Amino acid sequence: MTRPCTDFSHLITDKLKERFWAKVDTRGGCWLWRASLANRFGYGQFSINNKVYAAHRVSFVITHGRMPKDLLLHICDNPPCVNPAHLREGSYKENVHDMIAKGRAGYHKIIGEKNGNSKLSDKAVKEIIEKYDPEKKNAPALAKEYNITPSLIYMILHGQRRRYLTGAQEYTIDGNKVEIDERYKVEIKKNET
Ligand SMILES: [Zn+2]
Fold first, then answer.
1. What's the domain range around 181?
2. What average pLDDT does the segment 53-65 reach?
3. What pLDDT is recorded for position 6?
4. Does one domain contain both 45 and 71?
5. Cα of 159 to ligand 1 centre, how many Å?
6. Whole-prediction pTM value?
7. 31 CA distance to ligand 1 centroid (A)?
8. What's the burial of 27, exposed, middle or buried (CB within 10 Å: 0-12/13-18/19+)?
9. Structural domain total, the chain
10. Domain contains 1
């Protein structure tokens, strides 16, 4: 991801931890977030200094004292869960492969070859995932190569298909707004079922 994630690890205090865990139901295997959830994705939301963060990320930072390196994945597939034992760091590639393997997130529905409005073949999507290198920050170059917008590259890498399906017009990653190309929004609306 070329957008830097805001590091909030220095903002963790005992008082904040107390405020955080007061919102968590730790009775089951999955520790469920009892406060507000992100609209369509189901992640818990927790605010620090008026900025909203994904609760499972905050849980990770509280537990490990540092930010996750890349993506933070739920091994339990349960978005509102903040049990640190159910979270693991992963790469973008891994996340997309995992998503394809599990057939979730409407992946093929949106970018599958059979979709008449699809801009990309399955092969091209796989290539993009393989070629993406966060060190090189090459998302804009890939976007050019495949004649798509950088935002679509980020969508693929982040596995944000469901947001698309639900017709969300924008989303944020750690407080950074990610723009969705205007043309693509229209296509997605047409595809909604
Ligand atoms: Zn869990």
1. 113-190
2. 94
3. 79
4. yes
5. 19
6. 0.52
7. 6
8. exposed
9. 2
10. no
